[in-house]
Amino acid sequence: MSSDARPRGLRDHQLDDAAGAEALERTWRTPSGWRGFFTTVDHKIIGRRYIVTAFIFLALGGILGLVMRLQLAWPEARYLDPDLYNQIFTMHGSNMMFLFAVPVMEAMGVYLVPLMVGTRNIAFPRLNAFSYWIYLAGGLLLWISFALGMAPDVGWFAYVPLSGPQYGAGKRADIWAQMITFTELSALAVAVEIVVTVLKQRAPGMSLDRMPLFVWTMLVTAFVIILAMPAIMIASTSLILDRLVGTHFFNPAEGGDVLLWQHLFWFFGHPEVYIIFLPAVGMISTILATFSRRPVFGYEPMVLALVGTALLAFGLWVHHMFTTGLPRVAEGFFTASSMAIAVPSGLQIFCWIVTLWYGRPVYRTPLLYVLAFFFTFIIGGMTGVMVASVPLDTQLHDTYFVVAHFHYVLIGGAVFPLLGAVHYWFPKITGRMPSERLGRWSVALTFIGFNLTFFPMHLLGLQGMTRRIYTYQAEMGWGGLNLFVSLSALVLAAGFLVFFVNLGRAARHGEPAGDNPWGAPTLEWATASPPPPYNFAMIPVVRSAHPLWDDEEVLPVASGLRVDRRELLVTRVTDARPEARESSPRNSIWPFWSAVATTIMLISSIFTPWAVVWGAVPIAIALTFWFWPRGMPEEES
Amino acid sequence: MATRRLPPLALLACASATGCSGWQSALDARGSGSRALEALFWPVTAALALVWLAVMLVLAAALLRRRRPVPAQAARRSEIAVWAATLATVLVITVLTVASHLTTRHISRAAADPLVIQVRGYQWWWQVTYPDSDGTGAVVTANEIHLPVGRQVRLELSSADVIHSFWVPSLTGKQDMIPGRDNQLTFVAETPGILRGQCAEFCGLQHAHMALLMVVEPPAEFEAWLAAQRQEAAPPAGPMLRDGQRIFEQRPCGACHRVRGTAAAGEIGPDLTHFASRGTLAAGVLPMTRGAIAAWIADPQTIKPGNNMPLVPLAPDELQAVSAWLASLR
Amino acid sequence: MRLGVRIKLGARRMAILTSAVLALAACEREERSTRVDPPVAAALDAVAVMPNGIGGRPPEVHAALGKPYRSNAYQLSQGKQLYEWFGCQSCHADGQGGSGPSLIDGWWEYGPDLVSIYVSIRDGRPHGMPSFRNRLTNDQIWQLAGYIQVLGAYSADTAAPSRSDRPQTRPAENRAPATMAPH
């Protein structure tokens, strides 16, 4: 691969290291100031922005959670009226699922996948920029509507007919449905980028069986997104059509069906849980390998379990509908499939435990978060088996038991690993080490606060406390546990606060991290912290699944890419043999303007269907500029 | 609201039972369905708790064991351990799947001649109809279901507006009430007493205040109750009650509520013919006392914001007469 | 609501400032006030009607409330519910008219303004329109009047309710003009 010198263009092997780095810096850098802010297509800048935005939404959603706990702390409390309470729980759910959990996992992928596979930028970087702006617009739409007192009030799964034209007065449900369109659009865009980056841009030699497990999980997650998200986009669009132009998709009197909504929603909604959980699996595998100084046991079973989980995820959506009156055969099938997903999850957990068994665990904050994960997620898995059983679910469904269950699965299963992962990769992203002492405090507080907050909810559910009630009567006997839960929520909030304070301080005053502070094996640690705009001065060549452990001294590199324009190496899907050099798009303002035009069209279409027609014109103009050819021929090599 | 207390009757029943946490609890089975579910719940919970404990112990061992050099046969041992554990997982979930299937079959076994009751969900109250089975006329009431103990009951569930979910945890699991679909729920109430149920599917502003009482009584008492409910409202005794009825008929009250035997024939709100015989008013929000009736009429939107009962302006003496008359509708 | 404003001010001050104007309009449009104070409800009845029973001045309190019965989505949908619940359909069908006049043909026997519609419902009109004074409260009559005005509107209104979940006999209220049927 190395010496393929042609007269045209300046190649990296023609320069010494310093001059090469300088030339690459010139080619790949993002200009400073406002212009750079809006035009950048660097996956690291966009990924960082995505992560920060998602964590802001996490904090906002957490505040809503605390407000709900204030209202529920006492029976018959009157801090919130039912209308505001309904808006708040809808905001909390929609915000956490659509604006925090899914985007933050994808954001980690956007930042890390190109580094981990050893390439210079994500595939379709302008689409990446576009997806961020669209995501931000969707988030602003939801939160501004909340500030204006017109937030959705129909629950995060917005069941018709309550969200339909007759019972959902005003524009609240439309705002919810359109927010879905925004976030799903951005999620689909990122999924496509990740699939192409993983399949075509891996460093030479990184065949499929040498890919880091985190990259595998992002690849599988991206496919799940591509297959699941269209269902919800169809559902939300049908809902808007029902509400705005009088179609009858969900109107039983005219041949529609209200259960159609639930099927469409959960056909997306259940895989979404795995969209959130699978990246966390990758994070756990990465952290465990690094901190037990040993590769994760069972690479093939892990990958097979991932793929198995992803496939099964599409076969169990009906377990959210066990009380709707289904035929017995369907109940039996979906009970079995819902329980079956415990098998791949169990397999992964067993592999991790074996890894720890023969490893030499180093108890740093990221590993402590993973241990917190084991404790809580397995409880969530056990209660998951309970709600998968049709007869038990008829008692547990739509009660606080389910609230407890999915917080155990989502916070225990995804947020704890995520917090660990943010700790773990923070030195790479900022070049500075977070404080270990504060890190331990945040683990302890979130772990204890979480379990004290959510475990009693199981009991409340069994005592008959239903979900989504804005108050309850003193005679119900739920007051004591609810007060306990509300106080514990403060501990949990304190844990998150310490986490934020720690990272905020470390970003400015933390100790310099160096390239590979944890002694980790994967490629992202082979470059500087924070990585330069071009990621790697020379594209590394991979000879094992753990290049930084196995090639201890110097990583072999491939050369021959041009430094005077943005070029990446395209490799073969299976064995990552180099196929071609391909140019990577330069910075552009047009993804931003395209997102603005799309936002105008989508928001206006809440008010008039004609917006789809006239709103398409500015989008077409912006896209034309976006794709305007620069007259630079592609080179093959 | 200082006036919000349990109906005395329910308090009594509650205190005499296993303690107050029981009156809307999945773990206090009083019906065939919930008993079968409880019988499934505890073994499943125990089994899963054991599994969790086992995994935690192995994890703790993995972390705390003394570090020795990794033996040569480590990979093979690990492989065996992982596959054995996976196989055990498969076994556990197979057993649980079969157990839950058997429970479902057991619960939905139908008797030959069940008592049929139609329950229709409205935003935010329940309409209860005992269909006319023997030519004596149907009985329509609201927010309270009387059942004979020991007889199989079939509830036919429907919804007038959005999706609701019928859930009386002490009797059986929940079942959604979905517009455009007919669902049913079959069970036997096994011990007399008063149980509480609540709408379990989010249905709008007052989802939190959509409760109902289930009064399980001996068959003779049930028949007597049913016979009493078939009667029209008793004519008012005394001038005040007469005034109350007249005001009820002439003001907006009668446009929404029906009181059989009077000119009030509305069909929008709950049937009030034997209003005061129920334990609660406003779907479980207030106890059935004359004071609570007056408070409710005086300001329904503060007590249950967003419900469909308007604030009808009544003079104090009118309010007194109407509430007295309503309290007399036994 | 107020909490939301505080959060927004903290995190996204810019966004709030730019949409401040929109805010006022939206707050009113989407607010769900479920309770009218009894004195206000009484004052809502103080319409000054022209001697011929056509047109007049709405009560002052109506403007003070922000004219919710014409522009607030929740009040309009409540009005729509009352239209079905109180049997308007038996004479006016879904607006097309039957034994009573059509409400969507653009022709108003007593004028198109809200006060006339309010008075028609409250007091009844000759040739069969009954009085609803004793069947609805004042604010309910306003809700119903607001809905009926939207029903017959000739330009689309974003605050209009949409179709019902039952068999349709006419286009949804938010598709204007509702009908061009001759009468």
Give the fraction of residues assigned to helices of chain B: 25-40%
CATH superfamily of the domain at 45-360 and 570-626 in chain A: Cytochrome c oxidase-like, subunit I domain
Per DSSP, what share of the residues of chain B sits in E-state strands of 2 or more residues?
Answer: 15-25%
Number of domains as seen in the coordinates of chain B: 2
Question: What global shape of chain A is seen?
Answer: globular
Count the E strands of chain A. 6
Q: In percent, how much strand structure appears in the residues of chain A?
A: under 5%
Describe the fold and architecture.
The complex is a heterotrimer of chains A (637), B (330) and C (183). Chain A is 63% helix and 3% strand. By secondary structure, chain A is mainly alpha-helical. Chain A has a domain at 45-360 and 570-626: Cytochrome c oxidase-like, subunit I domain (Cytochrome C Oxidase, Chain A), CATH 1.20.210. In chain A, the strands form three sheets. Chain A has a two-stranded antiparallel sheet with strand order 1-2. In chain A, strands 3-4 form a two-stranded antiparallel ribbon. A two-stranded antiparallel ribbon of chain A has the order 5-6. The termini of chain A are close together. Chain B is 39% helix and 18% strand. Chain B has two domains: 24-191, Immunoglobulin-like; 239-327, Sandwich (Immunoglobulin-like). Chain B has nine helices and twelve strands. In chain B, a hairpin with an 8-residue loop joins strand 2 (125-130) and strand 3 (139-142). Chain B is elongated, with a radius of gyration of 26 Å. The model of chain B is unreliable at 1-21 (pLDDT under 50). In chain B, the strands form four sheets. Chain B has a five-stranded mixed β-sheet. A three-stranded mixed β-sheet of chain B has the order 4-10-9, covered by helices on one side. With 183 residues, chain C is an all-alpha fold. Chain C has two domains: 1-30, no CATH class; 33-183, Orthogonal Bundle (Cytochrome Bc1 Complex, Chain D, domain 2). In chain C, strand 1 (48-49) and strand 2 (56-57) form a beta hairpin. The chains are: A mainly alpha (637), B alpha+beta (330), C mainly alpha (183).
